[in-house]
């Protein structure tokens, strides 16, 4: 496997907020190629990192893109979900966003919530809420796993592989040592007020549609991988 790629990151790091980017993904034959848009507490992807991931898994020409989301806490992941998309993400720009507060994490595509990850507030909680994160994006070769479990390899004759970005925006708590006041307040910022702790009625309708039609894989239902269901899977996203 060739190890090759490129990426960028923000100068600032944040703890909680709204983070959004428009992307147009690699067109044509992109098998083996992953475009990632994510948040991470360690620029070097260290072993104790927290992380929130969008990963767009490339395809053979004519096959649909797969979007994978994942959550890491203290270097441990394994919380993958995979979805189909209801559009071709290579034809135009679409908006991919994360809402992150101390109560929930929501992954959005064009303002449609595709995944809700709740804070269980238990001692064995797997919710990243302690470490500030930078925002990153990268494109890289992952043909050992990305397309059909690694069966489809990158066709380097199709290079270069290009993903395009625009309209990056943040409305969040910029980290300042030792501890910024905006981490604790629930009155000054919309992303940490009561309405942002739960899905709205219209968001619940959109989310239910996604769950019925677009989910390919959910770690919470993988009984071969997890003999005991991870604790956070018992928390309803509707609460």
TrEMBL record:
* GO MF annotation list: hydrolase activity, hydrolyzing O-glycosyl compounds; xyloglucan:xyloglucosyl transferase activity
Subcellular location field: Secreted, Cell wall; Secreted, Extracellular space, Apoplast
Where's it mainly located?
Answer: secreted
Which InterPro entries does the entry mention? Beta-glucanase-like, Beta-glucanase/XTH, Beta_glucanase, ConA-like_dom_sf, GH16_AS, XET_C, XTH
Q: What is this protein called?
A: Xyloglucan endotransglucosylase/hydrolase
Can you supply one Gene Ontology CC term for this chain's record? apoplast
PANTHER family tied to this protein: XYLOGLUCAN ENDOTRANSGLUCOSYLASE/HYDROLASE PROTEIN 8-RELATED
Its function, per the record, reads: Catalyzes xyloglucan endohydrolysis (XEH) and/or endotransglycosylation (XET). Cleaves and religates xyloglucan polymers, an essential constituent of the primary cell wall, and thereby participates in cell wall construction of growing tissues.
Task: Describe how it is modified after translation.
Answer: Contains at least one intrachain disulfide bond essential for its enzymatic activity.
State the signal peptide span: none
Q: Could you tell me which residue ranges the GH16 domain spans? A: 1-165
Which sites are catalytic?
51 (nucleophile), 55 (proton donor)
Query: Known SUPFAM superfamilies for this protein?
Result: Concanavalin A-like lectins/glucanases
Q: Name one Pfam family in it.
A: Glyco_hydro_16
Return the similarity comment.
Belongs to the glycosyl hydrolase 16 family.
Species whose genome carries this gene = Nelumbo nucifera
Glycan attachment positions: 59
For biological process, the GO terms are: cell wall biogenesis; cell wall organization; xyloglucan metabolic process
Q: What PROSITE patterns does this protein's entry cite?
A: GH16_1 (PS01034), GH16_2 (PS51762)
EC nos: 2.4.1.207
What are the UniProt keywords, alphabetically? Apoplast, Cell wall, Cell wall biogenesis/degradation, Disulfide bond, Glycoprotein, Glycosidase, Hydrolase, Secreted, Transferase
